[in-house]
Amino acid sequence: MIDSAENAPLLAMRGIDKSFPGVHALRQIDLTLRRGEVLALLGENGAGKSTLIKVLGGAHRPDEGEIRIEGEAVNIHSPADSQRAGVGVIYQEFNLVPSLTARENIFLGHERSTATFVNRGDEHQAAIELFERLGVSVDPETLCRDLSVAHQQVVEIAKALWLDARIMVMDEPSATLTPKEIERLFEVIRELQAAGIGIIYISHRLEEIFSIADRVTVMRDGGHVTTKLIDQLTRDELIEAMVGRKLENEFPARDVIPGKPRLVARGLTRGDAVRDVSLTVHQGEILGVTGLVGAGRSETARLIFGADRLDAGTVELDGKTLNIRQPRDAIREGICLLTEDRKNQGLILDQSVRHNFGLPNLSRFSSRGFINQAAEREAFAEFIDTLGIKTPHQEQQAGFLSGGNQQKVVLAKWLARECEVLIFDEPTRGIDVGAKYEIYLLMNDLAAQGKAIIMISSELPEILGMSDRILVMHEGRVTGEITDVAQATQEQIMQLAIQ
Fold first, then answer.
1. What's the topology of domain 11-243?
2. Residues 250, 433: contact at Cβ < 8 Å?
3. pLDDT tens across 250-270, in order?
4. Per-domain residue ranges of the chain
5. For residue 406, what pLDDT is reported?
6. What is the mean pLDDT of residues 349-370?
7. In the 3-class helix/strand/coil scheme, how is the chain assigned residue by residue?
8. Which tens digits make up the pLDDT trace of 308-340?
9. What is the pLDDT of residue 409?
10. How many other CB atoms are there within 10 angstroms of residue 240's CB atom?
11. The pTM is what?
12. What is the tens place of the pLDDT at every residue in 79-96?
């Protein structure tokens, strides 16, 4: 239930301004959150959303502006100040200690104790009551590393509730959840709304925004673009507000007729994770692979790339049977993998973008143990230009780039290897709609050059919008193939995914 207009808002951020060296990150931002409301905060990567949330969470101090909670001005100079003010921020990368139990994580730093002893019984009961309040059954004594991602998220929400959070920020909360888990998350959010808690919801999945949000605030280039009720916006209007231009189609058109088979995998098997999987991807083709989380999609990609060892099966490229025992074997044969987790597996975040580009290409840029940095810079400069990588310079740390630009750096390092088969695992996860379109254009260009592309994705609109053919997996097996993608539906894919 949203409060009437005459009541003071739960949260009012006014004139928030923040600059970093060379970057004006926030430009006089206003944001209002009401009790029991879900406010979607949207914008492209680099729009300023994360900076604004870090101001509210106490990680950054604003240069100008004020924050009021229930009409009272608050000074938030640290995360502890933010928590005391009733703000709980649940980041995409959870702030949990894997080796501690759910109970211990909830009360960490705020233990219920008598004298010098922690009262575990009281904590256990309080944790059960928190989980019951959220309508979820979680054993408080389970180690967090043994919980599903969805239940880890519930632990984070329980932590915030224990600290009496009145304002909850959820940053990409559905990124790694299954459709059923997303439904359960929405039920939890509605429970929080009913209790009068205001929620700021950040997501690049627009279908979720129309399902859960009451209002939408859009940011672009550090400034405020618009705030409207969700039922006053169409999907196209929302995209245009985010990117600052019209996108005629969310998925760019492509007119490529797939050619001869390039990569052929037969009978790939590894335990129960991948069971007798066969697939073929042709010259100039984008083969979509989808299924629920745990279906074996990424595990299949890792087998093709040599990151995991096969129990059985063969991989052929252009009719030649390959002996791939490790990733360097696959790379040498012209197969590359853009991993699902680009931050931990695709990039070294504290190294420069140039170093990240050069690492798999050392043989090209080095001689007698010395790296020809001039040649490396020149080659990378070409990819910065052709891929449109937005970086202030080549020495910028990779961790400071937006998600879309990080993905382009990963792509650049593989293109420099002249790979013929590219496996994209969740290519647009955590990437805004404008950057997604750029990634799609790049994929289409690669296909037009005759490359063979395997695209693994959990986003069904993306699978339907980009694929020439679709393979659906369930519990390690291929359960269906869709060849007439133009006539396919999400419902058809889901039926194959749950067989």
1. Rossmann fold (3.40.50)
2. yes
3. 788 887 788 999 999 999 999
4. 11-243, 261-497
5. 83
6. 84
7. CCCCCCCCCCEEEEEEEEEECCEEEEEEEEEEECCCCEEEEECCCCCCHHHHHHHHCCCCCCCEEEEEECCEEECCCCHHHHHHCCEEEECCCCCCCCCCEHHHHHHCCCCCEECCEECHHHHHHHHHHHHHHCCCCCCCCCEHHHCCHHHHHHHHHHHHHHCCCCEEEEECCCCCCCHHHHHHHHHHHHHHHHCCCEEEEECCCHHHHHHHCCEEEEEECCEEEEEEEHHHCCHHHHHHHHHCCCCCCCCCCCCCCCCCEEEEEEEEEECCCEEEEEEEEECCCEEEEECCCCCCHHHHHHHHHCCCCCCEEEEEECCEECCCCCHHHHHHHCEEEECCCHHHHHCCCCCEHHHHHHHHHHHHHEECCEECHHHHHHHHHHHHHHHCCCCCCCCCEHHHCCHHHHHHHHHHHHHCCCCCEEEEECCCCCCCHHHHHHHHHHHHHHHHCCCEEEEECCCHHHHHHHCCEEEEEECCEEEEEECCHHHCCHHHHHHHHCC
8. 999 999 999 999 999 999 998 998 999 999 887
9. 87
10. 17
11. 0.66
12. 999 999 999 998 877 788
Q: What is the pLDDT of residue 5?
A: 42
- Report the pLDDT averaged over residues 187-202: 93
CB 422 within 8 A of CB 449: no
Encoded tokens for 3: 């409060």
Place of tokens 């980041």: 91
pLDDT digits (tens, 9 = 90+) for 437-480: 888 988 899 999 999 999 999 888 899 999 999 999 999 999 99
Residue 189 near residue 160, CB atoms below 8 Å:
no
Q: Determine the pLDDT at residue 2.
A: 46
The separation between CA 449 and the C-alpha centre of its own chain, rounded to angstroms, equals 28
261-497 is a CATH 3.40.50.300 domain = yes
pLDDT recorded at residue 117: 55
Q: Do domains 11-243 and 261-497 have the same CATH topology?
A: yes
Alpha-carbon gap, residue 155 to 290, rounded angstroms: 29
- Identity (one letter) of the amino acid at 5? A
Mean pLDDT confidence for 29-54: 91
Query: What is the chain's mean pLDDT, rounded?
Result: 87
Q: How many residues does the chain have?
A: 499
